[in-house]
Amino acid sequence: MTAAPSVATRRPSRRARTVTLVTVAALPLLLALAGPLIAPQRLDTPVTAPFATAGDGAVLGGDQLGRDVLSRVLHGGTPLILGALLVAVVTTVAAMLIGCLAVLRPRLGRAVERSADIAILLPPLLGIMLIALAWPGGGRWAVIAAAIVLGTPYAVRVVAAAASPLATAGYVEAALGRGEPTAYIALREILPNLRATVLTLFGLRFVEAVYVISMAGFLQIGPQPPASDWSLMVRENAPGILLNPWGVIAPSLAIALLAITVNLVTLAPAPDTTTKAVTRA
Fold it and tell me: Tell me: the pLDDT tens digits for 21-33?
């Protein structure tokens, strides 16, 4: 029987794989953020005939008004990324604080569980429409608010479920015995042991926010024409997909690539428990 490789032997290779994966996966994300700086054409200036095919004047052809598809794709990523990032940060931070406190306060834990059950039963699209109708002129901010309100209860329940076994750990009971405040125990004793859960949750919340904001944009709940938005581009260029398919394919691929990229970036630093499980089995 050959000896298992030492931790010192495995650690550099795992760190190198993580750095390489994060670097490669972060390139499309950085490209989307820097898109407005490298766009070859002005955002709203027609450069071709409507739905013109890819050619010299436009690498990916023109949209329904003859505007450069590539330039609009490069401009359309920044608002979506910033909106999804805001949703993910607010939702994850709220989930960390409330979830860790909920396992130490049974009454708060029951309230979190009930609110999460109600939020899960409410379809996201219906919730977005309700908040958008209640906030006339809210635009993108109304969609962001809806994503935060609908996503926070579920995220809190995920963190509370991960923190529940830690609430009975010896170091937590010792802190309770010393009379430490609840906030101190939640933030200093429980939360540091949930790094992998929180990181994965942040990635999932970001991807969900991307899809929610994109779906709302496709339904014209949020950003309105002539804004440069990937989901709006899909809706506006759908009638001419047979003339210039890049008007629909390019923004659709951008949305999918953004979701995959963020998943890779957030999952790469997470500890790999598969190898341990197989070894123990």
Answer: 667 667 767 777 7
